[in-house]
Specification:
By secondary structure, the protein is of the alpha+beta class. The protein has one domain: Peptide Methionine Sulfoxide Reductase, Chain A. The protein has a six-stranded mixed beta sheet with strand order 7-6-1-3-2-8. Strands 4-5 form a two-stranded antiparallel ribbon. Helix 3 runs parallel beside helix 8 and helix 5 packs across helix 6. The radius of gyration is 20 Å and the shape is globular. Belongs to the MsrA Met sulfoxide reductase family. Keywords: Oxidoreductase, Signal. Has an important function as a repair enzyme for proteins that have been inactivated by oxidation. Catalyzes the reversible oxidation-reduction of methionine sulfoxide in proteins to methionine. This is Peptide methionine sulfoxide reductase MsrA.
């Protein structure tokens, strides 16, 4: 009787753990970036979504800025639900690699985020950023409000009138439909994978140049 009761107890415990893990997975799938944002204590903060090439680089830029609480890598711009990196990176979906930036507006403004976004990638190349080629690397400002749309379009016009770029800006300004969080191993990829060949040869030179150019806007821990 004791042995049977112990077996029953172990079986019940196993089911409880399995169900808990399944429920956690379901919550992450359903709530996506919002679930991760809550873990990062960003509840109540506004967020901005941008696509500007490989999200490993884009994430590294924004997370260094004072006033930015969290940056989450993911996918947006397509119709496919729950896209995977394999689908997006191979061009089998209409999504672009994107980042969701949670920020404190009393420390950094949406306009400043726009300025950093356009300064850290080439908005004149269609479906390409450096060695990364494909529609998944297209340049997009995803807006949530009419005011964000107005600001993005006004800034693009300002850049074009100033002749900032030799070629025409091809950045899309489109409403945010859904932001899908990327797989866990993509989060904070630059910091966690310093020896990755792409990080060493492509991302690191860009990030270091960014740190030199935006030193006054960097968080203390990123100032050498």
């Amino acid at each position: 009787m004791i042995t049977r009761n112990l077996l029953f107890l172990f079986a019940a415990l196993f089911c409880f753990i399995a169900c808990s893990e399944a429920n956690t997975s379901d919550r992450m799938q359903l709530t996506g970036s919002d679930a991760l944002a809550q873990e990062e204590d960003t509840v109540g903060l506004p967020s901005a979504v941008f696509a500007g090439g490989c999200f490993w680089c884009t994430e590294a830029y924004f997370e260094r800025l004072k006033g930015v609480k969290a940056v989450i890598s993911g996918y947006s711009g397509g119709k496919e639900k729950k896209p995977t990196y394999r689908q997006v990176s191979s061009g089998l979906s209409d999504h672009a690699e994107a980042v969701q930036v949670y920020y404190n507006p009393s420390q950094i403004t949406y306009q400043e985020l726009l300025e950093v976004f356009f300064a850290t990638h080439d908005p004149t190349t269609l479906n390409r950023q450096g060695p990364d080629v494909g529609k998944q690397y297209r340049s997009i400002v995803f807006y949530k409000t009419p005011e964000e749309k107005k600001q993005a379009e006004a800034y693009i016009k300002q850049l074009e009138e100033a002749g900032t770029y030799k070629n025409k800006i091809v950045t899309h300004v489109q409403p945010l439909d859904k932001f899908w969080i990327a797989e866990e191993y993509h989060q904070d990829y630059y910091r966690r994978n310093p020896q990755d060949p792409y990080v060493v040869s492509v991302a690191r030179p860009k990030v270091r140049k960014f740190e030199d150019n935006y030193r006054s806007k960097l968080k203390r821990e990123y100032i050498e």
